[in-house]
Amino acid sequence: MNQLIINEITKAFTNTFKVKPLLIFSPGRINIIGEHTDYNEGFVFPGAVNKGIYAAIEKTNHSKSTIYALDKKSSFQFNLKSITALPEGSWENYILGVVAELLKLNKPIGNFNFVFKGDIPAGAGMSSSAALENSVVFGLNNLFNLKLTKTEMIFISQKAEHNYVGVKCGIMDQYASMFGKKNYALLLDCRSIKAKPFKIDFENYQLVLINTNVKHSLSDSAYNNRRSVCESISKTLKIKALRDATEGDLKRIENDLTPENYQKALFIIQENNRVQKASAAMLNKDLIGLGNLMYKSHEGLTKQYKVSCNELDFLVDEAKASNYVIGARMMGGGFGGCTINLIEKNHTTEVLTKVSQAYKSKFNLDCSIYIVELTNGTHVISQTT
């Protein structure tokens, strides 16, 4: 827990609204392996991490709800009776969307005040948006006794993203943020929306994120293109999603596809298989095997799915060249953001110093480093007294 942020949001809330709030932590997430498989109804291996959104919330008798984003030093008010989305890219839509989806379900919510701040690195692909959405729906569920299950709450968060933010995301981000468990990764079936927790003992290794601090403009159009390709090939195969395809199935229609699109679909099928192999590696406490699967995942993302970039590839190549990194890959949609690495604890400082210097020399840009731990999902920090 980041006590400094907890103190800051509590002080800001009580000074502004003169009452003690309900405090909530909603974590960001990592994904150990399983990239772009979520919208193909496949498997992913995420976990909640110890960086996220801290929120203070309480009911108000005023005619409007008031929201403060301390990170952005920005605030806004809205009336529950007339909620409309703001222009695309407005952070306010994550909150307005959740409220709107609750009202669509005729949930009896009243006006509220909400103050939040996060310590999720910007642009790192750790799903700060899902963490924020979950903090809002979780807080309102608690305050107004809506009796929503965690599963119902994550679908409200997802619909907020679809209908108000305009991002047709899968369910992984919201699920991992809400259902995370300390020291566990979640093998999530994105079709059934059921997960099996796997306890991971990283032994002498630790999870480290290295942020490229770049985000190339291709990302949105490339995501839409690849999603469209996957859906089109599924229709050709007469299946619901590529999760149902084998490499043999794909081989039968190879002549009907461009070489590029064949490789994209092949990557999804192989990545889905890698997730299953990763679960076996975790059960067997085979960290070396897990690391090798991470490297293979990155190779596929680079050469087959083609969503990587020079900066990400450089960081993974540096990891491969080290004797103290057993696995690394790009994490998230691609074209920037973070790599996720398994680094030997006793040599972490040495590895990261070398990588940082090499990255700066190559790109004239600083990378950012975050050591993360798997933690519990969205929860109350302390009740109002």
Features:
385 residues, alpha+beta, Ribosomal Protein S5, domain 2, 2 domains, six-stranded mixed β-sheet, four-stranded antiparallel β-sheet, globular
Describe the structure.
- GO terms for molecular function: ATP binding; galactokinase activity; metal ion binding.
- Residues 93-181 form the GHMP kinase N-terminal domain.
- By secondary structure, the chain is an alpha+beta fold.
- The protein has two domains: 3-199 and 375-382, Ribosomal Protein S5, domain 2 (2-Layer Sandwich), CATH 3.30.230; 205-372, Alpha-Beta Plaits (2-Layer Sandwich), CATH 3.30.70.
- 42% of the residues lie in helices and 24% in strands.
- It contains eleven helices and 13 strands.
- The protein has helices at 3-17, 92-104, 128-143, 150-165, 172-179, 219-236, 247-252, 259-283, 287-303, 310-321, 348-363; strands at residues 22-31, 43-44, 46-59, 65-69, 74-78, 112-118, 184-189, 194-199, 205-215, 325-331, 336-344, 368-372, 379-382.
- The strands form three sheets. A six-stranded mixed sheet has the order 5-4-6-3-1-13, sandwiched between helices. The chain has a four-stranded antiparallel sheet with strand order 10-11-9-12.
- Helix 2 (92-104) crosses helix 3 and helix 3 (128-143) crosses helix 4 (150-165).
- It is globular.
